[in-house]
């Protein structure tokens, strides 16, 4: 498969743990499509003690969404002149989706696909409570489902793996409920645009990647042509 990058401008949608970050990282590593993860940006700000991090922390710790105005202001600075990107974790409310439409219209860079990773609740809880993350690269592993070659160490850059503070059972349940209330309505929002590509997030990582590439290949946002 060629590693040439087409102009893929993607939104990855789906509940916590459905595999958005895993697949976004694969597209970035293989095809150079830039992953923009709002969760990673927010966690970096919390770790650095910035004013943005201070605003976001209590919401993230509770499994709730950071307020729309904070997120929309942050994302306006992120998109810039990028021709290809995966938005991983944004938008998460209808207000954020409407703001994204305006931003992209101003830039003249319409979305090429919105990918929905479908997955059932018990599997998501298992995935998140067993997840290990490299906070520097955002790459994720799972103690059972996708273990690193050496426990606690990133295969790619040797960095230490940590468990996210919001991956406890209690906070995961709250995050799933937040998704149902505030983010799930975006499925209808994007279904109306004809951009929605639905994938089974419970398939193996390789099978999800293959289905993703096959689905994108049929659209203008192909990454592998
Ligand atoms: P964020 O960091 O975006 O978390 P999330 O949406 O809850 O998503 P996750 O990163 O938990 O899951 P994922 O789908 O990426 O799964 P992954 O690929 O890692 O957001 C965190 C917080 O920030 C939010 O709660 C909120 O407070 C705030 N925030 C962020 N964006 C915001 C916004 N736009 N507005 C307001 N607030 C915002 O996979 C999970 C595990 O499963 C891993 O261990 C992985 O190895 C494993 N796995 C993945 N795929 C497979 C597979 N196919 N088979 C087996 N194992 C798999």
Question: Can you give a write-up of this model?
Answer:
- By secondary structure, the chain is an alpha/beta fold.
- The protein has two domains: 9-33 and 85-214, Rossmann fold; 37-83, no CATH class.
- Helices cover 46% and strands 13% of the residues.
- It is built from nine helices and seven strands.
- A five-stranded parallel β-sheet has the order 2-3-1-4-7, sandwiched between helices. The protein has a two-stranded antiparallel ribbon with strand order 5-6.
- The relative contact order is 0.21.
- Bound molecules: BIS(adenosine)-5'-pentaphosphate.
- BIS(adenosine)-5'-pentaphosphate binds next to α1, α2, α3, α6 and β6.
- BIS(adenosine)-5'-pentaphosphate is lined by residues 14, 16-22, 38-39, 42, 59-60, 63-66, 71, 89-90, 92, 96, 127-128, 131, 140-142, 145-146, 166, 175, 203-205, 208.
Tell me which CATH architecture of the largest domain applies here: 3-Layer(aba) Sandwich
What is the CATH fold-level name of the largest domain?
Rossmann fold
- Report the β-strand fraction as a percent range: 5-15%
The topology string of helices and strands comes to EHEHHHEHEHEEHHEH
Largest sheet: 5 strands, parallel
